[in-house]
Design brief:
Distance between the termini: 36 Å
Helix content: 25-40%
Strand content: 5-15%
Largest sheet: 6 strands, parallel
Bound molecules: zinc ion
Number of helices: 9
Order of helices and strands: HHHEEHEHEHEEHEHEH
Amino acid sequence: MGQGHPERPERLLAIDEKLLASRLDYLVVRAEAPAATREQLLRVHDAAYVDALERLAPGEGLTWLDPDTALGPGTLPAAYRAAGAGILATDLVIARRAESAFCSVRPPGHHAERTRAMGFCFFNNVAVAAAHALERHGLRRVAIVDFDVHHGNGTEDIFRDDSRVLMVSTFQHPFYPGSGVEGRSERMVNVPLPAGAGSAEFRAAVTEEWLPALERFAPQMLFVSAGFDAHRDDGMAMLCLREPDYAWVTQQVRTVAARHAEGRIVSMLEGGYDLGVLGRCFAAHLEQLAG
Ligand SMILES: [Zn+2]
């Protein structure tokens, strides 16, 4: 999205480098992300919206859709593959060809609403994947866990009225995008945290709010919107999580998945903008995801 934009290609290189440096690469099998099909995207986005993105995509330069979200020539091809990564991951995990999956993708997705791009997001990757599990694989209940520092307004917008989906999230509030508090329901378990909140507040939210909701809902598969921008040293926001918190929350998700969902987890990268922090948090997450 241009020089100096935090959502930059180096983010995925930082993850790749950490995967090798941490020697976790022997735990994973890599797969190349296919492009999501139009049909797969239209489960969660309006056709007119997808058409508008295609029309606005520039041959060169940038087309700004909001003050911090721009389409460049490479954006849509990457966005189709970011969504397609979740599709393939879901297929592999349900077919038991993978125990779980982490999708190292950009652009991120959880701010993308049914008919609106915003907050660096175009297609809602995690929603595309969850809808695929429901529509293609016939699951009846899936849960989306979102620990990005920003509220996943797009995911809520898409699944607010879908009784097959439970969303549990924590996010800094008040903060961008400002949503999440009014939309709270039995299936939209959004827990706002004040600036400065850290491990204790986060773990209390997970233990007291997320886990009982997940236990009641008994999801058949879990999806994670894995944003690492709530870390103390990520300059994007003001929550104060540390690497052990990401390891811990991943363990909690695994425990729920083992009990209700045959262990099935697909995790997808969302935010996380300090390259060193991103690599370390990713490694803590992946190590637990891989058991
Ligand atoms: Zn974020």
